[in-house]
């Protein structure tokens, strides 16, 4: 990612099972829709290391508390 992160004082982590994510571009776009950016800095970061079973999303905004459901509603993640 070439965009800067908007790192606030607090961060929230969400874990998304890798097998539910079929398209990383859809995931990125949905995360951007949910968390957005401020002054060119993202309000989220996600780690998609290939060897991990989960994708870790670090968000610098508290809501939504159930990110997986929000991503499923946007069609970025399959339902379990």
Helix and strand layout, with pairings?
Blueprint: E1 4-5, E2 12-17, H1 24-35, E3 37-38, E4 41-42, E5 44-47, E6 54-59, H2 67-73
Describe this structure in words.
The chain is of the alpha+beta class. The chain has one domain (4-73). 24% of the residues lie in helices and 28% in strands. The protein contains 2 helices and 6 strands, in the order ββαββββα. It has helices spanning 24-35, 67-73; strands spanning 4-5, 12-17, 37-38, 41-42, 44-47, 54-59. It has a 3-stranded mixed β-sheet, with no helix packed on it. Strand 5 (44-47) and strand 6 (54-59) form a beta hairpin. The model has no long low-confidence stretch (mean pLDDT 87).
Number of domains: 1
What structural category do the secondary elements indicate? alpha+beta
State the share of residues found in helices, binned by percent: 10-25%
Tell how many strands the DSSP assignment holds: 6
Largest sheet: 3 strands, mixed
Low-confidence stretches: none
**Alpha-carbon Rg, integer:** 12 Å
Q: In percent, how much strand structure appears in the residues? A: 25-35%
- Main β-sheet, spatial strand arrangement: 1-4-3
């Amino acid at each position: 990612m070439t965009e800067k992160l908007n790192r606030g004082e607090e961060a929230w982590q969400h874990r998304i099972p890798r097998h539910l994510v079929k398209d990383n571009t859809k995931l990125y776009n949905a995360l951007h829709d949910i968390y957005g950016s401020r002054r060119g800095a993202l309000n989220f970061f996600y780690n998609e290391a290939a060897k991990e079973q989960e994708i870790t999303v670090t968000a610098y905004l508290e809501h939504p508390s159930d990110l997986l459901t929000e991503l499923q509603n946007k069609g970025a993640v399959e339902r379990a």
